């Protein structure tokens, strides 16, 4: 960009009406031009800036680290990044308690005398949805107490997305694995939920480069539940459905492994799109 940015272009930039390329040019120009920064002050939404900085100060000035923040710091994550990660709705105590309650219910029901595999099938179908829902909620503005921090963070959004996704995955997979160990011995199928969980979660992250993560996550969850319901409907009971549902058979497992790989590639190639979606 040569010269200064005129006031009309700055207004369009503040309103989000410029093309991505033009907006990126202005963002690259502003740090080097005091005149344009001074002009931007007059066209910016002062109320929005005040709300943003108030939210940032309330989070940054919080003196005490939570338990999860301290754990993240211990594994090498910087303190300010840990604070952004723990803002993820799926890491709140209420969410984690709800996950634990659902898993415990499935284990108790599957150990009952009249289960006939129905509770085990429910467990396998429900388990992949836990990390998917957590990742989909990671950047939902209405539910994220650290959303203003995420918007204002001077770093690539892909780093925050990956940090939050890995934190959600680690905790939900840990809880689900612990619950699966309490189920009656089912052979290798006790872990048949793992690859679908990775595939659906990775696909949700890849779709977040195109649409809000909660939209992509909801669509994938509906497809998963519909397919699982059809398999159960065509089966005699839950135990038969486990054998019939293609996702829990060899070809389905390979398909979800391939989906995970493709989603990771798409996310890596389209990671820049997330920076332009950080305010959505």
Short account of what is shown:
This protein is an all-alpha fold. It has 16 helices and no strands.
Give a written overview of the molecule.
This protein has 280 residues and is an all-alpha fold. The protein folds into 2 domains: 1-44, no CATH class; 67-275, no CATH class. 69% of the residues lie in helices and 0% in strands. The protein contains 16 helices and no strands. Helix 13 packs across helix 14. The chain is elongated and about 70 Å long. The relative contact order is 0.10. The model has no long low-confidence stretch (mean pLDDT 76).
Order of helices and strands: HHHHHHHHHHHHHHHH
Beta-sheet strand percentage? under 5%
Overall number of structural domains? 2
**Main β-sheet, in a few words?**
none
H/I helix tally: 16
**Helix percentage:** 55-70%
Give the overall pLDDT as a whole number.
Answer: 76
Low-confidence stretches: none
The geometry reads as elongated
Write down how many β-strands occur, each being a DSSP E stretch of 2 or more residues.
0
Q: Please state the structural category.
A: mainly alpha
The N- and C-terminal alpha carbons lie at a distance of: 26 Å
Radius of gyration: 23 Å
List the helices and strands and how they pair.
Layout: H1 7-15, H2 20-29, H3 34-43, H4 46-60, H5 67-74, H6 79-85, H7 93-110, H8 118-126, H9 129-136, H10 147-152, H11 157-181, H12 194-207, H13 213-233, H14 238-244, H15 250-269, H16 271-275
């Amino acid at each position: 960009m040569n010269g200064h940015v005129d006031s009309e272009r700055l207004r369009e930039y503040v309103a989000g009406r410029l093309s991505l390329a033009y907006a990126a040019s202005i963002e690259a120009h502003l740090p080097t031009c005091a005149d344009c920064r001074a002009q931007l002050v007059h066209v910016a939404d002062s109320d929005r800036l005040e709300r943003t900085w108030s939210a940032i100060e309330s989070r940054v000035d919080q003196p005490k680290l939570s338990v999860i923040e301290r754990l993240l710091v211990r594994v090498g994550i910087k303190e300010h990044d840990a604070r952004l990660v723990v803002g993820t709705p799926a890491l709140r105590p209420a969410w984690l308690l709800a996950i634990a309650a659902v898993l415990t219910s499935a284990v108790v029901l599957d150990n009952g005398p009249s289960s006939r595999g129905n509770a085990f099938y429910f467990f396998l179908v429900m388990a992949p949805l836990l990390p998917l829902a957590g990742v989909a909620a990671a950047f939902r503005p209405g539910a994220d107490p650290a959303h203003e921090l995420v918007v204002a963070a001077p770093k690539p959004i892909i780093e925050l997305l990956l940090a939050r996704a890995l934190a959600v995955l680690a905790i939900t997979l840990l809880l689900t694995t612990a619950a699966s160990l309490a189920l009656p011995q089912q052979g290798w199928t006790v872990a048949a939920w793992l690859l679908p969980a990775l595939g659906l979660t990775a696909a949700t992250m890849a779709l977040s480069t195109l649409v809000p993560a909660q939209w992509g996550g909801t669509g994938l969850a509906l497809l998963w539940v519909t397919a699982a319901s059809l398999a159960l409907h065509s089966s005699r009971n839950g135990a038969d459905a486990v054998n019939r549902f293609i996702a829990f058979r060899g070809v389905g497992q390979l398909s979800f492994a391939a989906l995970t790989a493709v989603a990771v590639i798409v996310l890596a190639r389209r990671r820049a799109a997330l920076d332009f979606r950080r305010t959505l």
